[in-house]
Design a protein that fits this description.
- This protein is an all-alpha fold.
- It has ten helices and no strands.
- The radius of gyration is 24 Å and the shape is elongated.
Length: about 270
Amino acid sequence: MSTISENIAVKTADQIKSVAKDEDTSMPTVPWITGFILMLVALGFVIVVKGYQHNFSWNYGLDSASPEFQIYWMRLLYIQLMTIFPAGGLFGIYLWFSRDKDIQSLSPRIELRRLYSIFGMLTALSLVVVAATGLLTEADAAWHQVVIRDTDFTPTHIFLFYLALPLAFVGLAIAWIWVHTRLPYFANRVSLPFSMLVGGFMMVLPVVAFNEWGHTFFYAEELFSSPVHWFFVLFGFAFIFVVGFVLQCMDRLRELTQIVSAEEMEQQMRG
């Protein structure tokens, strides 16, 4: 029995080494299918949010003092805030403590595959951001131009300011940790463009607070050109730093493709 067990263990170890070897030697590609699936899931989530908003805003979202508003909207607000930030914090802690302590010895092919994954995710998320911004932001502006607000927690704000923005905050923070713990190129340095993107996006918090304070106390007009909306433009400029981060990734991408191409040529010459 011991001999059989040892043979099984040896075969299993050989299979694991073979799989790892195949993973190291396989040519990295952009995971377009995975990015497309994630994009469909995110867009489906946006559609569900819009469906809920459409069905319950007019019936239960006009009077913040009504019991129905507390059930259909305030409970939703509490669930969102008590779920997004703790879950994101726990996942961020997991990424940090599960990081590879010897990240500099990572195979160039695996690093190249991870860089390709970043480009795939950026492509998918760019479409999701446009869809979410157009649907949620435009809905919020239209709501305030038609309905007189009686609380900062309007039906459109509960999804825009307390769902979409927290998800974006947490997602960017997790992405920052992943980039600096899973990529050797950023392991011993800090990506300034990515950090500026995260920091600039975080500045929307005081902008939202100032916007709500202004509308509540001295500026009721809901035009896009109103002074209390001007600072949202500055916050939007933070997305420009994505270009700097992409350029950093492309610089490393050039180095890795040269290494992998040289390995491919060497393998072909040996074959």
